[in-house]
Structure formats: structure tokens, C-alpha cells
């Protein structure tokens, strides 16, 4: 049962879409939302301040100029939280607001420690300051947080049909259960997609899916296909009229996940619809 949804917000269009999805889900579950706006300390140091300093004479600015920058970031955070508050009041969803200063990804993970779901837009206002190795703030949160994460699209559209990528692993099982809970509340039909599964596993995985979906009264079907997992999943999603996906987050190895990008990251970047990721 979802009781608390954490929504990081920076006031960007993507975060407003994330809020809209989150409030619809919160309303169905009677959950509260926790709005988090972070003053990113990377905006107060490093390349950002250095670039401004060199543009005005080669010196890194301090004193009153630093205070001005911090005031601007505080104001932006306040505005983002005010927008969230207004949307919560309009939907009559209980809420809590938090404004913090620090590293965005770390604070999101910490705030979500007692939450049931994190909801984030695929892009944000400060994505240009993301870590080059790990990717965006979103990708870093997916790797750090041990809570389900709903990654929302850039435009809000109703969720009407669920696709779950499932391989029988515990992580994929978490995604199956989390998505079944949401699909049950929204009365969405679903498809459980298994890629590259041997015939000897078909009955076993079908039975597991049935056990997970049955308590939530989700109307679903099984689909078994072969091929490169990311290609099969994306083709199935795009050609089948799906608008909500769920999957477990994992990589074949730590090196491949951090440097080359896992199947999860590839799908995160390609799916233009709500994507539920579980670790």
C-alpha cells in the first residue's frame, strides 16, 4: 500500500508533469506526498561560479555576489514548492514540503528512506550539471535509492495499459508487484513480457505472475519472445499501445552499468511514458 510519495521538484515543466502523475496516484491510495526542493551546492561552486567569475574579469566572485546567487536559488526552490502546494490543495492531497541544501541525489535518497515511491521527471532544470559518468541526476537516484521510482514523461497522458518486463528475478518480481498495485487501483489491463526464456521456465514464470497479480484483480496476459532484451521490450511497448511500463533495474556488471549503460538506462532514455523502476 502506498502511503508516502516523494516528489523532487525544481519548478521545471518535467517536474510539474511528475507532480500531476503523483497526485493522481496519491489520490487513489489516500497517500500523502512529500515535496522536496534542493538548493544544489554544485550551483554554488565549481564550473558554474568559475564560468561567471571568468566572464566578469577572471576572478571568482564572493561576498555579496554569492549571497545574491544563493537568494536566487532559494527563491526558485520556494516557487517550486509553492506550485506543488497549490496543486496538492487543488487535488485535496495531504502534503509535506521540504527545502534542503546539498547534493540532489543524496538528499532525494535520504528523504525517501521512509517513503513508498519516488516520482521524478525524466529531465529537469539543472540536468546540465549532472555527473558525466553516471548520467543525469535521475540515473544516479535509480542506482542509489532502494525504493520504487516512477520516471514520468515530458507530457502528461492517462495511463491505460501496462507492460511489465519480467525475467523471474527478485528485482523483477518487485517491479511486478509494485506495478500490479498501481494497475489494480487504476483498473489497468497488463502484459507480462518475458524475453529469452526457455520453454522449461514458461509455466513457472506464468504461475509466479499469476500469484502476484491475482490479489490486485489485474487482468493480464503473458508474452514470451526472443531477441535482444532492450529492443524486444521497446518494440513491444511502442507497437502494442502501452502507456505505462515497469521493470527491475539491474546491469550485467557494475562496470557495464556505470560506463556503458545497462538495459535499464537504455530503456529509461527511450520510453516516452511513465516507467516504474524497482531495485
DSSP helix fraction: 40-55%
Structural class: alpha/beta
- CATH fold-level label of the largest domain: Rossmann fold
N-to-C series of helices and strands: EHEHHEHEHEEHEHEHEHHE
Largest sheet: 10 strands, mixed
- Write down the overall mean pLDDT: 85
Task: Specify the CATH homologous superfamily of the largest domain.
Answer: HUPs
Distance between the termini: 18 Å
Total beta strand runs: 10
Describe this structure in words.
The chain has 279 residues and is of the alpha/beta class. The chain folds into 2 domains: 4-152, Rossmann fold; 162-278, Rossmann fold, CATH 3.40.50. It has 10 helices and 10 strands. A 10-stranded mixed β-sheet has the order 3-2-1-4-5-10-9-6-7-8, with helices on both faces. Strand 7, helix 7 (199-213) and strand 8 (220-225) form a beta-alpha-beta unit.
Amino acid at each position: 500500500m502506498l502511503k508516502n510519495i516523494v516528489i523532487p521538484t525544481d519548478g521545471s515543466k518535467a517536474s510539474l508533469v511528475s507532480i500531476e502523475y503523483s497526485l493522481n496516484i496519491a489520490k487513489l491510495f489516500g497517500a500523502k506526498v512529500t515535496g522536496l526542493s534542493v538548493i544544489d551546492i554544485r550551483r554554488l561552486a565549481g564550473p558554474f561560479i568559475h564560468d561567471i567569475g571568468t566572464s566578469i574579469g577572471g576572478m571568482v566572485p564572493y561576498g555579496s555576489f554569492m549571497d545574491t546567487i544563493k537568494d536566487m536559488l532559494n527563491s526558485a526552490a520556494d516557487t517550486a514548492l509553492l506550485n506543488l502546494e497549490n496543486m496538492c490543495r487543488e487535488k485535496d492531497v495531504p502534503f509535506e514540503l521540504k527545502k534542503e541544501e546539498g547534493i540532489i541525489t543524496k538528499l532525494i535518497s535520504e528523504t525517501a528512506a521512509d517513503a513508498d515511491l519516488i516520482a521524478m521527471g525524466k529531465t529537469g532544470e539543472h540536468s546540465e550539471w549532472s555527473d558525466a559518468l553516471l548520467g543525469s541526476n535521475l540515473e544516479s537516484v535509480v542506482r542509489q535509492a532502494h525504493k520504487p521510482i516512477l520516471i514520468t514523461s515530458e507530457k502528461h497522458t492517462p495511463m491505460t495499459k501496462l507492460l511489465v518486463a519480467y525475467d523471474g528475478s527478485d528485482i523483477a518480481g518487485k517491479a511486478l508487484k509494485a506495478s500490479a498495485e498501481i494497475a489494480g487501483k487504476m483498473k489497468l489491463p497488463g502484459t507480462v513480457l518475458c524475453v529469452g526464456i526457455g520453454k522449461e521456465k514458461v509455466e513457472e514464470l506464468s504461475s509466479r505472475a499469476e500469484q502476484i497479480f491475482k490479489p490486485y484483480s489485474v487482468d493480464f496476459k503473458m508474452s514470451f519472445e526472443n531477441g535482444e532484451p532492450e529492443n524486444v521490450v521497446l518494440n513491444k511497448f511502442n507497437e502494442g499501445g502501452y502507456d505505462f511500463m515497469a521493470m527491475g533495474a539491474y546491469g550485467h556488471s557494475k562496470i557495464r552499468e556505470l560506463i556503458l549503460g545497462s538495459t535499464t538506462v537504455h530503456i529509461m532514455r527511450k520510453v516516452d511514458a511513465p516507467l516504474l523502476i524497482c531495485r
